[in-house]
Specification:
The chain has helices at residues 8-32, 36-39, 63-66, 69-79, 167-175, 180-208, 210-233, 288-302, 312-315, 343-354, 418-424, 532-541, 546-553, 566-578; strands at 44-50, 55-58, 90-93, 105-114, 117-127, 157-161, 164-165, 238-246, 256-265, 268-272, 318-321, 373-377, 384-388, 427-435, 449-456, 459-464, 487-490, 498-499, 505-508, 513-517. The chain is α+β, with helices and mostly antiparallel strands. Among the domains are: 3-226, no CATH class; 363-529, no CATH class. Strands 2-1-5-4-3-6-7 form a 7-stranded antiparallel sheet, sandwiched between helices. The chain has a 5-stranded antiparallel sheet with strand order 14-15-20-17-18, covered by helices on one side. A hairpin with a 6-residue loop joins strand 12 (373-377) and strand 13 (384-388). Helix 6 (180-208) crosses helix 7. The longest helix is centred in the N-terminal third of the chain and has 29 residues, at 180-208. The N and C termini lie far apart (66 Å). 56% of the residues are buried.
Length: 591
């Protein structure tokens, strides 16, 4: 059967079925996982590949995993050719350069057989909360400069045979991690997810026949390529450049420069990171797979957006280059455990370049999430614990709408509920709140920063901090103001208040409080044309203070009734325009 023989209804049902299968596999992984990173934080992904190793469908999960899966599958099959595989096999790997760029991400590739023939692969990735190494959680920035210091590395091996764990492999893993029951539990959840996908693909083949299924896959990939090329042709041809900076790669280090040049020529697009700083002697490095993943993701967001599900066909017209040895194409044996914090900056950089060509399709830079990890011992159980935290701030302002609070924009993680953390670990969440006046002012306001205060009640505790945007504010677009800087404090609001570095390692005493605050996000457009009613609503909701309403937006509100004083607002805005429209950069002290 050829692609021209498929009727549209069958194609639509099969395509929808593939997407549903990928989502169901991911849901299975989440619901059977042991760690809160996977279960509550959604730090996992699932997808389907055909027998040739081409991604045909992916679930609604993390771009960093999904964009790296083609490499993981290629390497898995290179080590284990199809004729060496049997039903129930599953290939495990976590190599940073074969996978998504750091050792905690384990990929599991399962061959799918139908009537004795290998027809597809079910693939998933889960972030494991520990793979050994120098610090609990295996995401150190400081004190590491080689991957050998970051934990154990697994080249492609059969982790499951006949559907059962390979005892020797799992025993080696258990011996090298701090919380083996959790890690092995998540590995079993990954097997569960692929088993569900395997069964569902078989049901689809039973219903439509293998020839129809394969013809649909070819049509999906070819159609997706045509659609992506058509979407690229809608971008004004030209060359678009942007620069941005990471704060640093540890205490007493300088900023790290990122550069990108995007060239659009007809229906081809080239993303070139030439000019980016060299790789670092720290855990802040991205492998090429990771840079590719977020380049593809951002390109999809500004072109096809929600018009078409993502697959390999969407990638064919896009070329991505990063200088070997740069921080966005780090070479082995580089350390890269902390690369998770880099993805938002890659996306922000690309969106700033695309803003020159597609101002109505981009958002202002978003808050950098925080990913601190605590290790210690529980006084209640006497067992070691690893408390993996996800703290997601706001999204940047949009061309026609404010940014959103506590919302990921470059990946699908979620803020972990306080009740879950308190139920599983010796912690007390003392505060979880938005930070007023942290979102960048604009015609559309940036999302507010998120603050989370954690009292640690364990023993022998160690914090590995991982945060960004504590030196360089997220800039606004088209006259929008930048978001406020983030901070990490120990003992906030007390005489012993201490500023902790965004990437430092610290011993944490029992009952210490650590306050994590993400950055705010950039505003979009001139704040002096923002609807006064919207400013009033922000004040009522606590996003903006009365003082900032006047200072940033020129909106004067009655301090008692919060009604807009239209005459005073007109005068105040005229004064600000006469002064050049420069508002005071937002401040966001911890309150």
């Amino acid at each position: 059967m050829t692609t021209t023989d498929i009727d549209r209804i069958t194609l639509g049902v099969v395509w929808g079925g593939l997407l549903s299968i990928a989502d169901e596999a991911g849901i299975t992984l989440r619901r059977t996982a042991y760690s809160q990173a996977v279960r509550e934080g959604r730090d996992f992904s699932a997808a389907l590949f055909d027998h040739r190793g081409r991604m045909i469908a992916q679930g609604d999960f993390s771009p960093g995993h999904l964009g790296s899966m083609p490499s993981a599958v290629r390497n898995a099959v290179a080590y284990f050719p199809p004729d060496t595989l049997q039903p129930g096999d599953a290939i495990l790997l976590n190599d940073a350069h074969m996978g998504s760029g750091h050792l905690p991400d384990f990929f599991l590739t399962t061959p799918i057989f139908y009537r004795g023939e290998l027809i597809a692969f079910a693939v998933n990735c889960a972030h494991h909360i520990d793979v050994g190494g120098a610090v609990p959680g295996s995401q150190a920035v400081e004190g590491v400069h080689e991957s050998y210091q970051e934990g154990f590395r697994v080249l492609p091996v059969k982790g499951f045979v006949g559907g059962e764990p390979v005892a020797d492999i799992h025993r080696i893993i258990a011996a090298n991690v701090r919380v083996p029951d959790v890690v092995l539990g998540d590995l079993r959840a990954q097997r569960n997810a692929n088993r569900v996908a395997e069964r569902r693909i078989g049901e689809l083949a039973d219903r439509y026949g293998l020839d129809t299924l394969r013809a649909c896959w070819e049509h999906i990939l070819d159609h997706s390529e045509r659609e992506m090329r058509a979407a690229i042709r809608e971008i004004p041809g030209g060359v678009y450049h942007a620069e941005d900076y990471f704060d640093d790669c540890g205490r007493d280090t300088g900023p790290i420069k990122l550069c990108v040049t995007i060239t659009v020529d007809g229906d081809d697009a080239t993303i070139d990171y030439g000019g980016t700083d060299p790789q670092t002697r720290s855990g802040i490095n991205a492998t090429m797979n990771y840079t590719l993943a977020y380049s593809y993701f951002t390109m999809k967001c500004v072109t096809l957006q929600n018009r078409l599900p993502h697959n390999e066909g969407c990638l064919r017209p896009i070329r991505v280059f990063a200088p070997p040895g740069s921080v966005l194409n780090a070479q082995p044996p580089c350390a890269s455990g902390a690369r998770a914090i880099m993805q938002q900056r890659i996306v922000d950089l690309l969106l700033q370049a695309f803003a020159q060509a597609l101002p109505d399709r981009v958002i202002a830079p978003s808050a950098h999430w925080a990913n601190p990890i605590f290790g210690g011992q529980s006084p209640r159980t006497g067992r070691r614990f690893i408390y993996y935290e996800i703290i997601v701030g706001g999204s940047g302002a949009r061309p026609h709408k404010d940014g959103a609070e506590a919302m990921c924009t470059s990946f699908n993680l979620e803020n972990i509920p306080c009740e879950v953390s308190e139920a599983h670990f010796p912690v007390l969440i003392e505060q979880l709140a938005f930070v007023p006046d942290s979102g960048g002012a604009g015609r559309f306001r940036g999302g507010c920063a998120l603050r989370k205060d954690v009292r640690m009640l364990g023993e022998d505790q160690r914090l590995t901090n991982l945060a960004e945007r504590q030196r360089f504010q997220p800039p606004g677009l088209f006259g929008g103001r930048p978001g406020a800087l983030g901070r990490t404090l120990r003992s906030p609001g007390t005489p012993g208040e201490e500023v902790l570095h965004s990437k430092g390692h610290y011993d944490i005493a029992t009952a210490d409080v650590v306050s994590f605050q993400t950055s705010g996000t950039g505003g979009y457009g001139d704040p002096l044309v923002r609807d006064p009613a919207a400013v009033q609503r922000d004040v009522v909701c606590g996003y903006v203070s009365l003082e900032a309403a006047q200072r940033e937006y020129g909106v004067v509100l009655d301090p008692q009734t919060l009604a807009v004083d239209e005459a005073a607002t007109a005068r105040r805005r005229a004064e600000l325009r006469a002064a050049g429209g420069e508002g005071t950069p937002p401040r966001c002290p911890l309150v």
